[in-house]
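Query form — protein Inositol-1-monophosphatase

QUESTION: What is the three-dimensional structure of this chain?
INPUT:
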Amino acid sequence: MSAPAPRELREAAVEFARAAGAVLREGYGRAHRPERKGRIDLVTEYDRRSERLLLDAIAARFPGHAVLAEESGASAPGERAAPVRWLVDPLDGTTNFAHNYPFFCVSVAAEVAGVLVAGAVYDPVRDEMFAAAAGEGATLAGMRLRVSDIARVEDALIVTGFPYAVREHPEATLPHFEAFLMRAQGIRRDGSAALNLCYLAAGRFDGMWESDLSPWDMAAGVLMAREAGGIVTGYAGQEFVLDHRELLASNGRIHEEMKGILAGTRTAR
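ANSWER: The structure tokens for Inositol-1-monophosphatase are given below.
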């Protein structure tokens, strides 16, 4: 079975993300009783409802495709290798959603033979749909995106996130935060890696670093950043790999400086 073209996968991702976003929009503003998956890791009924919709939609449209989803894990149609794997985060920013803080999204990506080829990230509060297909650029509401041209970290707005284990291992995270805080024009931490990468693609942020991320957190946003002209690597500048759980992303112009800041922090520790 051959894989659909990236454009077809992108349009499907947009459709799926918008439908799941409607579920989240319905729940936004309500009182929630989230469950704890970990000490500070939450899940709500809307995570599950959104994911169920996404899994059903993918199975109906593409019955031979595999899925990796946050709440239900990996699923495959059978023993034969699937032509496409979908990476699904039904609610990126669950803590924000649970507190009715308006910064969360649905993230849907597709990869073929391990290569990201399509993605959509939908913010249902702002009704912003970010979409990308390999080789065709990234868009917001159909308008082409381009990363910023900021050339120095001291002029840059940088974004990050803290891992769920930050309380157990603050030494692995806080030195990076302090180093960028002292050098950048500003730092933001707003709780959705997928949206952060889309904001980088749109030129709203100039750089991003974060660790302990899962593939579904990053997949669609990484493609968005790349297709908008950005660079995504590991902390040391090595090739980015979804399963390695860390990323350094930028507009390209400040990438080496950001890499140097991270390296200096590791040396200091």
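ADDITIONAL NOTE: The chain has two domains: 6-144, 153-268.
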